[in-house]
């Protein structure tokens, strides 16, 4: 049975911004524990992402992440990003060069929106301020869904937004920890304390399909096959569908949603820096959200 959705309001420093992440609790794929650090050609998996996003480019993308004003300053460094990516060698590996760049741009754009410190007149523009936050400010609750008996909350623990994707709720911390080898229910704090774990939770979310939703990875690399229901709902591949997967219930099927524009703004900037076009279906205004 599909479970509901959740709210994750994040109050950002410069712009009060309601950001919400919804996910279905149904069909959790149990990702393996093993590392697969060779791709099909025997290449070092780490090098695939490193060859797309160089250290210099990473610094240009996240220009202000280490500013003193950013609560996450010093947290999200390049080395740690690559170490986490090595756990998911298919990330940035599938498809032709343009596809691989576009997937990486899409992932970095989505985590940038989730952690943005930007505002309209910010230095270098609003889209130079991704990865500024690592933990939700003033969480309104401990995000414990007590009805999730599979992933019971540990008393005293809070499952508010942490890390690049702002992982939230016990029913996400539990399976993320199981897949990645940390105690998500007993030690959710590690997601905002260990940057490698933090990045891995974001990549786990990106790479893992949770029915009825495909993975964002499959969508961006052309492996997504819409069902009849998806076609009827206009859920066609493109960056907009990753927004629908992440937060469609709030942001999709309507126009004029500022969060959608913020996500697209980051995506356009990163695609430009990577020298790749943004592809089709940038927004999700004409898509129905997933029902859960
Ligand atoms: C990046 O972060 C890791 C983990 O916190 C740390 O061990 C490493 O020294 C950092 N590297 C740089 C270049 O700051």
Automatic annotation (TrEMBL):
It catalyses: Random endo-hydrolysis of N-acetyl-beta-D-glucosaminide (1->4)-beta-linkages in chitin and chitodextrins. Keywords: Carbohydrate metabolism, Disulfide bond, Glycosidase, Hydrolase, Polysaccharide degradation, Signal. Pfam families: Glyco_hydro_19 (PF00182). GO terms for molecular function: endochitinase activity. Residues 197-207 form the Glycoside hydrolase family 19 catalytic domain. The keyword Lyase does not apply. The active site is at 114 (proton donor). Transmembrane segments: none annotated. Disulfide bonds join 70-132, 144-153, 252-284. Residues 1-31 form the signal peptide. GO terms for biological process: cell wall macromolecule catabolic process; chitin catabolic process; polysaccharide catabolic process. The keyword Signal applies. Its EC number is 3.2.1.14. It comes from the Eukaryota. This is chitinase. It comes from Miscanthus lutarioriparius.
């Amino acid at each position: 049975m599909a479970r509901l959705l959740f709210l994750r309001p994040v109050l950002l420093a410069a712009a009060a911004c309601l950001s919400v992440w919804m996910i279905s609790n149904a069909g959790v794929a149990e990702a393996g524990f093993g590392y697969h650090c060779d791709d099909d050609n025997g290449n070092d998996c780490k090098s695939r992402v490193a060859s797309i996003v160089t250290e210099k480019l990473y610094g240009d993308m996240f220009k202000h992440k280490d500013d003193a004003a950013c609560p996450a300053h010093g947290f999200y460094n390049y080395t740690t990003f690559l170490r986490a990516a090595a756990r998911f060698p298919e990330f940035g590996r599938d498809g032709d060069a343009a596809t691989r760049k576009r997937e990486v741009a899409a992932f970095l754009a989505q985590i940038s929106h989730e952690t943005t410190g930007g505002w309209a007149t910010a230095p270098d523009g609003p889209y130079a301020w991704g990865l500024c936050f690592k933990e939700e400010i003033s969480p309104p609750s401990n995000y414990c869904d007590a009805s999730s008996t599979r992933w019971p909350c540990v008393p005293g623990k809070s499952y508010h937004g942490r890390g690049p994707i702002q992982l939230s709720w016990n029913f996400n911390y539990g399976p993320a920890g199981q897949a990645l080898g940390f105690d998500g229910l007993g030690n959710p704090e590690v997601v905002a304390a260990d940057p490698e774990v933090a990045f891995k939770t974001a990549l786990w979310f990106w790479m893992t399909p949770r029915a009825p939703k495909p993975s964002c990875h499959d969508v961006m690399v052309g492996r997504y096959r819409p069902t009849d229901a998806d076609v009827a709902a206009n859920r066609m591949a493109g960056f907009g569908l990753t927004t629908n997967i992440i937060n469609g219930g709030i942001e999709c099927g309507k126009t004029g949603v500022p969060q959608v524009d913020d996500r697209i703004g980051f995506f356009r900037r990163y695609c430009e820096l990577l020298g790749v076009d943004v592809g089709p279906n940038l927004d999700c205004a004409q898509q129905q959200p997933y029902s859960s």
